[in-house]
Amino acid sequence: MFNRNRSVQQMAAIVSISLVAGCSLLGEESSDDAGPIVVGTTSAPSTLDPAAAWDGSWELFRNIYQTLLSYPTGATTPQADAAECVFTDSTNRTYKCVLREGLTFSNGDKLDAKAVKYSIDRIRAINASTGPNGLLGTLESVQANGEREVVFRLNKADATFPFVLATPGMAIVDPDDYPAKSLRKDDGIVGSGPYRLQSYEEGKQAVLVRNDNYKGFAERKNDAVTIRYFQDSGKMVKALRARDIDITYQGLAADDIIDLGRKGGDNEGLQLIEAAGSNINYLVFNPKDPWSNKLAVRRAIAQVVDRAAIAHKVYKDTVDPLYSMVPAGLTGHTTGFFDSFGDPDAKKARQILKDAGINETVPLTFWYTSDRYGSDTALEFKELKSQLEASGLFAVTLKNRPWNSYVLGYQKGEYPVFGRGWAPDFPDADNFIAPFVGDQNALGTPYPAREITQVLLPRSREVSDRANVAKDFEEAQQILVRDARLLPLWQGKQYIASSEDVSGGERALDPSTIMMVWELSRKTSW
To answer: Fewer Cβ atoms within 10 Å of its own Cβ: the N or the C terminal residue of the chain?
Structure first.
């Protein structure tokens, strides 16, 4: 999503630092007379087909495809985009959407109720292992009534369903350009969003231009945006300082963030914006592995890992230690792992293993992706290895793969322990628990957790007022702590660095911290 780094209630910038002495961050805005605004990111899409993407590809999708609902600037609940939608019953099981009049795709084809039904049915029919079908677990059927009405019937109450429809995974596609039962293979996109894709070079750049057929809430403050993909933070920052790009989004390494915070020198004419974030990083333990399958091993690791050291030594305090899967700022957040394990303690970890009859050194292989979550990921895993081996209890081997093959590996259950980052599909505690549990989840490692999947989540989804579901999520997190199948490590912040003549960076993040590039513009005066 540019890499889905994702508290949501505070998504506006909380700190804005100008690196140009005496300059305001405000100014008159203009169109891009100087050419397209160029955005840099270290997270390239894994696919251009929405049916195959439940990842950072969504960040491109948000700007090119359209969804029934979305998030206008400042909104934290889904609002109308392609349609006005509402539950028509008191049980949260029938959801009706009425499309805007005269909608078309970027190629001029009609966007009607049948196209919406086709798009959703297609996701389910293809059921790609890397796709968003997992978000549609409560959907029973989709019905198209005439040209503009779509009715979704759910198999159980689900107050989060509007949030699901607002994710870029539910993008509306043109039936004439996307096969019903297979993925589109070329590098083209036909959508109905604010921009159309003029050209695409995999791993290099995406060129976006205004979609003149667009009808939706977005007020575009530019006519064109080019997104450039980088392999690491250093090269991206170098391009920013050389004015080859105008703004960075996702993937800034901690050292680069600290360096960009210094005034003068190479930073002349740049600005750094810090925003609250809800993205998390965590470890996943594979029950197919003979060592990771042992509860005592998982609990011993939880007892040894020093999150504060990772946050400080690796990320220079640009992230915060995290002790639950639900990040701070969301209803239902707890500190369960700290409450249960306290500070890192090798002696307690040794006792946990001893009580389980494990007296030998535990061998484990930790996997991470080499090109997805930023340049600091390798350093993070070296720190984890150092911490675990310093306890004298573990022997850790580190391995990595590029994201595209990494995903396939964990979906096949190949990794004993592996790292993942998660940015919410939508701003609700449900989305930090539901995707990771169940026999078929987003991690490729079955985790039945029946009390969560059959009692707590269904009960919470009957409640439309999400402030009233904290108890269910707190109970769910206690189960996660008990099982230690997932180990939260840290919660991120969002950093955007840009040229001082680019405005809108602080407004451009939706509640999942996906960049809405239509908010970016150039300033004409100070």
So the answer is: C
Name residue 53's amino acid: A
Where exactly are the structural domains of the chain? 1-42+230-277+494-526, 49-185, 280-492
Using CA atoms, how far apart are residues 15 and 113, in angstroms rounded to an integer?
Answer: 43
Q: Which residue has the tokens 């409450």?
A: 339
The domain over range 49-185 is classified in CATH as 3.40.50.360:
no
Phi-psi category of residue 405: left, alpha or beta, with phi > 0 → left and psi -120 to 50 → alpha: alpha
- The DSSP 8-state label assigned to residue 379 in this structure reads H
Residuewise pLDDT in 10s, the chain (526 residues):
333 333 323 333 333 333 332 333 333 444 445 789 999 998 899 999 999 998 889 999 999 999 999 998 888 889 999 999 999 998 899 999 999 999 999 999 999 999 999 999 999 999 998 899 989 989 999 999 999 999 999 999 999 999 999 999 999 999 999 999 999 999 999 999 999 999 999 999 999 999 999 999 999 999 999 999 998 899 999 999 999 999 998 889 899 999 999 888 899 999 999 888 889 999 999 999 999 999 999 999 999 999 999 999 999 999 999 999 999 988 899 999 999 999 999 999 999 999 999 999 999 999 999 988 877 899 999 999 999 999 999 999 999 999 889 988 998 999 999 999 998 888 899 999 999 999 888 888 999 999 999 999 999 999 988 889 999 999 999 999 999 999 999 999 889 999 999 999 989 988 888 999 999 999 863 3
Q: What is the pTM of this model?
A: 0.81
Parallel, antiparallel, or unpaired: how do β-strands 394-401 and 362-369 relate?
parallel
Residue 401: what are its φ and ψ, rounded to 5°?
-145, 155
> Architecture of domain 280-492 in CATH?
Roll (3.10)
Please give the structure tokens belonging to residue 7. 């508290």
Residue for token digits 């001029």?
108
Domains 1-42+230-277+494-526 and 280-492 share a fold: no
The pair phi, psi for residue 310, each rounded to 5°, is -60, -45
Total residue count of the chain as it appears in this document: 526
Whether 84 contacts 98, CB under 8 Å:
yes
CA distance 510 to 496: 14
- 1-42+230-277+494-526 CATH, one of 3.30.40, 3.30.310, 3.40.190, 3.30.43: 3.40.190
